[in-house]
Amino acid sequence: xxxxxxxxxxxxxxxxxxxxxxxxxxxxxxxxxxxxxxxxxxxxxxxxxxxxxxxxxxxxxxxxxxxxxxxxxxxxxxxxxxxxxxxxxxxxxxxxxxxxxxxxxxxxxxxxxxxxxxxxxxxxxxxxxxxxxxxxxxxxxxxxxxxxxxxxxxxxxxxxxxxxxxxxxxxxxxxxxxxxxxxxxxxxxxxxxxxxxxxxxxxxxxxxxxxxxxxxxxxxxxxxxxxxxxxxxxxxxxxxxxxxxxxxxxxxxxxxxxxxxxxxxxxxxxxxxxxxxxxxxxxxxxxxxxxxxxxx
Amino acid sequence: xxxxxxxxxxxxxxxxxxxxxxxxxxxxxxxxxxxxxxxxxxxxxxxxxxxxxxxxxxxxxxxxxxxxxxxxxxxxxxxxxxxxxxxxxxxxxxxxxxxxxxxxxxxxxxxxxxxxxxxxxxxxxxxxxxxxxxxxxxxxxxxxxxxxxxxxxxxxxxxxxxxxxxxxxxxxxxxxxxxxxxxxxxxxxxxxxxxxxxxxxxxxxxxxxxxxxxxxxxxxxxxxxxxxxxxxxxxxxxxxxxxxxxxxxxxxxxxxxxxxxxxxxxxxxxxxxxxxxxxxxxxxxxxxxxxxxxxxxxxxxxxxxxxxxxxxxxxxxxxxxxxxxxxxxx
Lengths: 296, 330
Hints:
The structure holds two protein chains of two kinds. Helix content of chain A is about 70%, strand content about 0%. Chain A has 13 helices and no strands. Chain A is elongated, with a radius of gyration of 22 Å. Chain A has one domain: MetI-like (MetI-like fold), CATH 1.10.3720. Chain B is mainly alpha-helical.
């Protein structure tokens, strides 16, 4: 690692670690990931075990079932722990898909300009005209809803921000001397994009990814809540809430805890993402803008 | 200015065609058809000719590009066809019944958001790092992270069931027709409280943040210093010189967010059983009602396009820099 990069990492770490909220966010996110990975070890019960016993269903939180049981006697705590796996997986994979598409189209657009740029940017405009939730609903109704379709659909409708970000980075980076020098010694476009420009364009992408994961988790849980997302018996935070909706008069714990899990997860990811952004470069504040919930 | 408006308008036309193209093909390429429910062992054997006849009836036997072309010709005159639902109503009529409710709710939401977010944003910007600023910052982060459907369910449990203060679904009471005029209005308002609270919550967080950000940027400008230097009271500096300029980008974003709010009302309308566009969309999606889904998608995205256009043009009107130069990055 060149000394300069090491210095930048040290500078980044110094700014980041001074931001207490961001550190708390980071720690909680790390814990959540561990929780999801070790869900089978941590869960007190089998989240799919049905207990067809009147005394076991819809039990309020107690020492036996810390967060109560649902309408067919499944342990809510275990289901929330397993739900973390689905929610985080959907977050990571769908943001991964969106980032790959966004980086690919954004760098083509920014590097080549002209007609390529025009076509790709019109496509971005077109995708942005659709209220995202309407588009998602329409697409999902006609595919077999499964965890994979959810990931794919959220990914394929969420790449536009990254594409614009990468394009903007490329527009300024391609005028820089190191790019012009490599062009002058005959490096291929692919090599220049991949080796020279892209690594320099990555920091804002990284931040966009960190802020994209909680947005994807919110979207997934909203869809699952409507019954159009990840299907039972898979436990996700959204469909536990969907189950709970039928019992709001007698079983508040089915509604309270999964939502709390979503809230904490999304909150901590946002804190982490904002912290990374502020520490990377104050100028990024403007480049990335405030994260918004509009246009879902 | 006219040239600028025309240029923006010209850019919107291909987008409009793109909207119809994407909506049509997304839905057509998916497996399964609206008559699948007839092929059900519980119903006994259905004569394949009946399904065939139904497909011919609705033009589903034609190749896709012909179906698209026919459909495009019809929507050019705002004919979205008839719903596949048993009532068989024209799609436009169905949407027409629902759209005013959704728009009404969204306009009220926007007014409330504006009325609260502007003072909150200004106060937290002018007193940056004060207790008030910190409290609103916490509120903003929590507001961003709260799933709206969860908030809705919690409020239903608390105010509807535990306390029994407010109705939790629909827009009218069962005995609405028998109430006096004023009681009807009160009943209607009571039904609106929970859905509007939920829908305003997330938006309020976003907009007070925008307002704060925008205000912080404006306060650093030279014309604000000038206003201070010539001895104006702080109230006049903030209330007149700074606020007006800080409102510009925020109002634009508000215009742009209208369709987003409509999209977001899907979940709120579903939970509170409000007969608006969002509920119609979810119902149509569950029953694979192609014409309604397409009509919904086209109308909502066209509304987005129009709102974007209006926001762009009005921004150009109030800020001449936009007309001449490139678009300002938002």
